[in-house]
Amino acid sequence: MSDVAVPSQPPAPRKLPARLGQRSLSIVYLASLVAGLLVWQLVAQGYSSFVLASPLKVLARLWQMTLSMELPRALGGSLQHMALGYVIACAIALPVGLLMGRMRFVNDLLDPVVNLIYAVPSVAWAPFIMIWCGLYFEARVVLVVIMCVFDMIIVVSTGARNADPRLLAVGRAFGASPWQQVRMVLLPESLPFLFTALRIGVVRAVNAMITAELFLAAVNLGAIMKQSAVRLDSAAVLGILAVLCLLGLALQELLLLAERRVCIWRPEGRR
């Protein structure tokens, strides 16, 4: 009796090492930025520099403003009210979101209010902020808080609501106090949502920072944009927009790096 040939199974696909995969992602990341700059350069060649400055002219204008210390001073002033407003928004959103996610009474009490205010465009609060807080530093901080806090509350409450009830039950079974359950079970379980809320909030804070400086008293980066627009200096206007884009991107990447270091039990945290 002849032996029957058994078809061999195809070899399992080989996984790329984590470092190699991360390096590939970084190359794609940089390639997308370079491709965007090339497209910008090609499009700008068909227009006057008053209408659309090229990346090289924008870079030269930014370098000029940096040497004169105009840009560093303006950016430093803008970051002050952005950072303070963001910290206040985090201090409000994290506990309120956790309470709404875990306590039905608090959710029923606050959810309609949060959704009603969230539905109003943030810029629509600018006239009221002018009446309540004036036009200067306090008003800019308030606008940053308003534009950040409600997005963060919604994300944090969703994370707390989706926490695994079995883990909380285990904590209760071992006699954990309510505070211990929050600190040792709920917070670790909600960390991915908390970091998502922080990333959303920091982008909204950058948005609110320049919005406040354009709609309220024109200072710092907002003043540079307004004055440059009057002079038809598109290179300076685009330069400030580029600074804002890079600022938001850098802050998001820092938070993503912190998330990978903290949430080491998640697959993406081991990259």
Automatic annotation (TrEMBL):
Location (main, coarse): membrane
Cellular localization per UniProt: Cell membrane
InterPro entries to which the protein is assigned, alphabetical: MetI-like, MetI-like_sf
Keyword terms, alphabetized: Cell membrane, Membrane, Transmembrane, Transmembrane helix, Transport
Superkingdom to which the source organism belongs: Bacteria
Record-annotated ABC transmembrane type-1 domain positions: 75-255
CDD domains: TM_PBP2
Topological type in the membrane: Multi-pass membrane protein
Membrane-spanning intervals of the chain: 20-40, 83-101, 113-134, 141-160, 205-224, 236-258
PANTHER family per the UniProt record, alphabetical: ABC TRANSPORTER PERMEASE PROTEIN (PTHR30151:SF41), ALKANE SULFONATE ABC TRANSPORTER-RELATED, MEMBRANE SUBUNIT (PTHR30151)
Family per record: Belongs to the binding-protein-dependent transport system permease family.
Protein name: ABC transporter permease
Source organism per UniProt: Xanthobacter aminoxidans
